[in-house]
Design goal:
Layout (H helix, E strand, L loop, with lengths): L1 H11 L26 E7 L12 E8 L2 E8 L1 E4 L2 E7 L4 E12 L2 E6 L6 E4 L11 H9 L20 H15 L7 H11 L2 H16 L6 H14 L3 H14 L4 H9 L8 H14 L2 H6 L6 H16 L3 H6 L6 H18 L4 H17 L13 H25 L3 H8 L4 H5 L2 H13 L3 H13 L5 H14 L7 H8 L2 H14 L4 E2 L4 E4 L4 E3 H4 L3 E7 L4 H5 L1 H10 L6 E7 L6 H11 L5 E4 L11 H11 L6 E6 L2 E7 L5 H16 L2
Parallel strand pairs: 12-13, 13-14
Antiparallel strand pairs: 1-5, 2-3, 2-6, 4-5, 6-7, 6-8, 9-16, 10-11, 10-14, 12-15, 15-16
Helix pairs in contact: 2-3, 3-4, 4-5, 6-7, 6-8, 9-11, 11-13, 13-14, 13-15, 14-15, 15-16, 15-18, 16-18, 18-19, 22-28, 25-28
């Protein structure tokens, strides 16, 4: 009660209670009365500051104009006594001006002064010297730069401290000044209120603003869409966002905004997959893609996402007829994604019988081929060349899966025709696909096509051990059973460009000089290998695990390397199983021997720190590898790691050539 009495006395005496002092400074605006249509004098006193001894001082002027921050920069004029001046013409609609001073480049200044990150700013009055509606909200966006769009985001170094008491005061001033018109700047107003109020307190404030906006029947669909997104994502008022969404649907049922609202409301997650599918179907019945295609906008991503979602739903619920029907109206980009995610996934994990998968995929792969030239990837890339390259790569990948399926089913004639649909790069650039091609030609008894395939695969450096064996057999058959000259013949087939590229790669990675840590690792027979076993040798170590598919895919290439150096006493090659669980010894040995590989197998030692089977590998992550991915290969000479490379390119012959080149370079030192 006493507080109310005191307040009443103050009011009767004509005393105004002052709000808390503004957190920023207006000291650089000596007139303190900026008006639109006049020059605003900016006077900077550099004495005692970092810019005191600067020969040149510039000013960056940030103005809040038409509800967005814009920035201009100017050279200031020296007026003596370490003071600098600039006269800035204030245009109409400017509500607030902020400035900062600097020497050099604004974006990497030698010296900068923005009042110790508190800012220099000034509200701008109208031509009659009265406060402008929106000027207090502009001020709010100056002290809270995330409230508004534009250049003010770069005004501060990090986030400035926020005085909520001051912010609350200027918001009250704006409410008194603007009244219901405050709703025209709802993003600034409600954004500021969200910093001051709880969600429960914010709800009625936001509802009042929304009702004011919705009272205008002429509000456009786009403006309603902006309001709905703001309510839903910026201030988390879902009930009001739903109310605006209903207004959009009722007033503009066929608009792009209504379509986006409907897309936002699709049930993309539910324990009942049929409900998810039904939600996608409802969207497509209301907003068919054929209608969008007549007048496309920049929201084509909606249909990409919708078809991806409904396609997965149909596939996972075994509605394959509906899945196939989707492809009639969609472009190459979307068709490719549906095939990639569903058909390739089903093939890899054997979730659909291969005969059934063939009948699903066969008409769709033909449809995909017919859509190659539709240009649907253009929006994702800077130029047509890059888009076409990506399209070819995607088409090659889908063909790889389909050819593999046909090969598994013994449909060799059909598989053969799809090899001709591959891009120039795809025809010979994949070793596994080349091996399938060889198998298909053998099954079709197409003897005259086998040697050209093998020679082109050698040129692309994408060859499997079986392909090498076949090539050598054909060579010896044509040379009366003799292998003399075979190595020279093989070298003549190899691409000069491929060799140069490989040489550059090896040279780039042959730059390590790190002593291998002390180790002792058990081999497959229960013995141990340590530093003494590798001194005076060149040693290749391949870190792998049974759970790592790329590691296993690289095994044929490692077998080629092992076979090449099997009689070379200077070279040792170890396959080091690492980061495995359970009975990793039995698991690793059984896998390698069961697959017929002739490897010297080692088991990484158990780590005292974490108890895992990764002691040597983890000791090399920080100094050498920089990450924990496998496969990872190192080459050691005389106990010192000289080379490291990770991953697998997909070509056994290329892997063999890479590590052979490293070994020979180290031998020649």
């Amino acid at each position: 009660m006493m507080k109310k009495i005191v307040l009443a006395v103050f009011l009767l005496m004509g005393i105004t209670l002052q709000a808390q002092e503004q957190p920023y400074s207006s000291a650089v605006f000596p007139s303190q009365s900026g008006k639109v249509g006049q020059n605003l004098r900016i006077l900077y006193d550099a004495k005692g500051g970092d810019l005191e001894f600067s020969d040149e001082v510039s000013v960056a002027v940030y103005r809040f104009h038409n509800d967005i921050w814009k920035m201009e920069q100017f050279a200031m004029k020296s007026v003596g006594n370490k003071q600098w001046e600039y006269l800035y013409p204030v245009s109409d609609s400017t509500l607030f001006v902020g400035v900062k001073f600097f020497q050099g480049d604004l974006y990497s200044p030698e010296i900068l002064d923005n009042n110790s990150n508190k800012g220099y700013g000034l509200k701008i009055f109208d031509r009659k010297g009265k406060a402008q509606k929106g000027s207090f909200l502009a001020e709010a966006s100056f002290i809270v730069p995330t409230l508004a769009r534009g250049a003010i985001i770069n005004y501060y170094e990090g986030e400035p401290s926020l005085d909520k008491t001051y912010l609350s005061g200027i918001i009250r001033e704006e409410e008194k000044l603007s009244g219901n018109a405050i709703s025209s700047r709802y993003k600034l107003y409600l954004g500021a209120q969200r910093l001051l109020l709880t969600d429960q307190e914010l709800a009625p404030v936001a509802e009042k603003v929304v009702n004011q906006l919705l009272s205008d029947r002429s509000i456009s669909a786009d403006d309603l869409g902006d309001l709905q997104l703001f309510l839903q994502h910026q201030i988390k008022q879902d009930r009001l966002a739903e109310q605006v969404g209903k207004r959009i649907t009722e007033q503009y049922p066929k608009s792009a905004t209504a379509r986006f609202v409907a897309y936002s409301n699709i049930r993309t997650s539910s324990n009942n997959l049929n409900e998810v599918v039904a939600s996608y179907e409802d969207f497509l019945s209301r907003f068919p893609i054929t209608e969008w295609q007549k007048k496309p906008d920049n929201k084509g991503f909606i249909y990409y996402a919708v078809y991806r979602g409904i396609g997965t739903g149909y596939f996972d619920t075994k509605q394959f007829d509906k899945f196939q029907a989707l492809f009639k109206d969609i472009d190459f980009r979307t068709s490719n994604e549906l095939l990639r995610w569903n058909v390739m996934r089903a093939y890899m994990f054997n979730t659909v019988g291969k005969d059934s998968l063939y009948h699903i995929a066969e008409p769709l792969i033909q449809m995909l081929i017919s859509k190659k030239g539709d240009g649907s990837y253009r929006s994702d890339f800077m130029n047509k060349q890059a888009a076409d390259s990506n399209m070819n790569n995607q088409m090659d990948d889908r063909l790889f899966t389909h050819i593999s399926l046909l090969n598994d089913l013994g449909r060799y004639d059909e598989a053969r025709k799809y090899f001709f649909e591959l891009s120039d790069k795809g025809k010979y650039g994949n070793a596994e696909l080349n091996d399938i091609n060889l198998h298909v030609l053998e099954k079709l008894d197409a003897k005259h096509d086998i040697l050209p395939l093998l020679e082109m695969s050698i040129k692309a450096n994408a060859v499997t051990p079986r392909m090498f064996d076949t090539l050598k057999s054909l060579y010896m058959k044509s040379h009366s059973g003799s292998s003399e000259g075979y190595d020279l013949y093989l070298t003549s087939l190899q691409s000069v460009d491929q060799r140069a590229e490989l040489e550059a790669y090896v040279n780039e990675h042959l730059n390590i000089n790190y002593p291998i840590p002390d180790f002792s690792m058990e081999n497959a027979d229960g013995g141990f290998v340590d530093q003494d076993n590798i001194k005076d040798k060149i040693v290749v170590m391949d870190f792998w695990a049974t759970w790592c598919r790329p590691c296993i895919m690289a095994f044929p290439g490692m077998q080629l390397l092992v076979d090449k150096y099997t009689n070379d006493s200077q070279v040792a090659i170890y396959m080091v199983g690492t980061m495995q669980t359970g009975d990793y010894r039995t698991k690793s040995v059984n896998f390698v021997r069961g697959e017929g590989y002739r490897f010297t197998l080692l088991h990484d030692a158990e780590n005292e720190v974490n108890g895992q089977q990764d002691k040597l590998f983890k000791s090399l992550v920080t100094p050498i590898f920089k990450d924990s991915s496998i496969p990872r290969k190192i080459v050691v000479k005389n106990g010192v790691i000289r080379y490291s490379s990770g991953g697998y390119s997909g070509s056994p012959s290329k892997l063999m050539d890479e590590l052979s080149l490293v070994i020979e370079k180290l031998k020649s030192e």
